[in-house]
Amino acid sequence: MLFKYKAVNDKGENKEGEIDASSRDSAISGLQRRGLIVISIKDEAQAKTIFQMSFFAKVPMKNVVIFSRQIATLFEAQISALKAFTMLSTNSDNKLLALKLTQIGDDLQAGFSISGALSKHPDVFTSFYVNMVKAGEEVGKLNQTFLHLAEYLDRQYSLTTKTRNALIYPAFVIFTFFVVMGLMFVVVIPKLSAIILDSGQEVPFYTKLVIASSNFFVSYGLLVIIFIIILVFWLWWMARSEKGRNYLDKTRLSIPLVGDLYKKLFLSRIADNMDTMLTSGIPIIRALDITAEVVDSNVYRGILKEVTNGVKSGLPLSTAFEKYPEEIPGIMVQIIKVGEETGSLGPILKTLADFYKREVDDAVDTLVGLIEPVMIVVLGLGVGILLVSVLMPIYNIAGGIS
Predict the structure, then answer these.
(1) Which residue among 14, 179, 206, 212 sits deepest, i.e. has the most Cβ atoms within 10 Å of its Cβ?
(2) Taken in order 383, 386, 390, 393, is the CA torsion positive or negative?
(3) 1-49, what's its fold?
């Protein structure tokens, strides 16, 4: 096996290279016999596997939640960090996570702290996660920290999944509607319109409109599909740029019902993040910085950065939030102010997080309850009007023949 290493010699000079050995321990022993102090050593085959898997696999949030609970239990049982990560890497159901944990174990053996080793894998462990672990290391309560992280990630996973699923249903119904209408215009209407036009009878205006629309889609349907593909690609390209993300985030928040749902989701995430970090002893400035990075909205990210600057300049958190009445509701500002005055900002933020979580749940239930009947009615009316427009003239033809 080929191992890539970084080491220091007795003169303090950095050395890098590769060594062929039967195992990792053999590679370390071989380097030590050369008079080198090993800083890090990695299995090249394993590193390549991680690189290749990163394009095709990912670590779901639920796997990170399970890992956090397991590592907390192992730390509670007084098992060393290196042994705990080794045990979990061999028992993980997710192959990519198993490889990541193995690499983290190697870094721990090389002298890295747990937070330092985790920070090398930002695609799995966010800056929020790493900073929470760092705070746990500083106060010596890693088992409690990982339990807090598991509970937090579980809440966020549940909330995000419910919101996403609520929006998938109407998107599916709308997609089905357009597919059905497209098939009607391209396949069914042309055949029926030929019968109507060949009859020579007077065609109603709404039937002419339907036939003209059908002719357009038959003649230019391919161009319409190409236009839709270009539009989707353009939106994807916009979402990759800072300006585009800002525009899309603002648009998302301005959509009736959906915008209110997203606003409550982001407020719940902000309050939950802040509560979890402040409770773990992370300073408020650092907590605001980290929350800004993980809130998943450019609009609220910008607000949190401005709020951070305000708090740095000496403003209370509630006063800094007060400048954004459209995005930060007055009730949230007032509750934070009470927490500041009573010295219980953490518990107050937990109350806010629970409140907005319930608000998101209610908003999702309301949205689903409204969309389901509306979509069914619209779909039925659309197809019904379309059929009536072409079937009524055919019925009149049949009546005239009889």
Answers:
(1) 206
(2) positive
(3) Ubiquitin-like (UB roll) (3.10.20)
